Amino acid sequence: MSSIVFFIQHFFHFSKRELQGFFILMPLMAITIVIPPILDLCYYQPAEAAQLDASTKVLNGDSWQPPFRFNANTVRESELIALGFTPSVAQRWIKFRQKGGRFTSIKQVGKIYHIDTIRLAELQSYISFEDPTRKEIKARPKKIYPTLISIHHCDSAALEALRGIGPVLAGRIVKYRKKLGGFVDTAQYKEVYGLHGEALKELKEKTFLDKTIAPEKLSFNHDSLSKLAQHPYLGWKLAKRIVQFRKQHGNALSEEAWKQAYLFDTEVWIKLHPYLTFQESADSSFE
Fold this sequence. Notes:
With 287 residues, this protein is mainly α. It has four domains: 2-42; 52-128, Orthogonal Bundle (DNA polymerase, domain 1), CATH 1.10.150; 149-208, DNA polymerase, domain 1 (Orthogonal Bundle), CATH 1.10.150; 225-275. It has helices at residues 2-11, 16-42, 46-60, 77-82, 87-98, 106-109, 117-122, 156-160, 167-180, 197-206, 225-230, 235-249, 255-259, 266-272, and strands at 70-71, 127-128, 149-150, 207-208. The strands form two sheets. The protein has a two-stranded parallel ribbon. The longest helix is centred in the N-terminal third of the chain and has 27 residues, at 16-42. The chain is elongated. It starts with a helix and ends in a 15-residue tail after the last helix.
């Protein structure tokens, strides 16, 4: 034994430490070479061989079927065997689905243990991956966009049919129209809170103003403080000044008298003018 050690050491020019490593490594290499065949013999399963033989008979016998289209998530075990897969592979395929798994790609199917990848590649164009458990999402009905609608009479539902205008914005438009007493100019649309951009452009393009329809009128001479204050162009502060002025000067003032009262700046007067009336009213009460 010592002569063999001496020969190996001098033949390979090993140092003492390298020689020790060599004798440790050699048994490990022998184990890695010998163990796999032994394990194959130990774990050989006649049933597996029988399944393989059965699938070969299916392919070569009368029960063989030409390729057909199938869903990887619904195909039956018998169909998989008929397509050329072994019974054990077919069982693993079905078992994966029974555990809640879903196939989404050919790559995922290829991960099944011992699957015939060549056969799988041949069937690639026949496989689909729709998930039968997924609920079909119904497409939302498309909005039908009208040509032109009257801004004086349209309700929220009609406004919601316009592009970019939802229930909230439609409600604001209707509410602001009521506060104003009616729109008299498309420029007033931008006074609606949150109405801008494409929605504002759409409202201008898809609505029209009927000039024959007069807006609801305000009377500085006769309307109550609360009614005047509710108008968007007045508010409580200006409404109180109006009521105070008519208490001092009477409730039969002309348009010119009100204009010269210097209660309003020019911009507010111009915006208010279409809504004003200075005719006598049967109800002359005021706050």
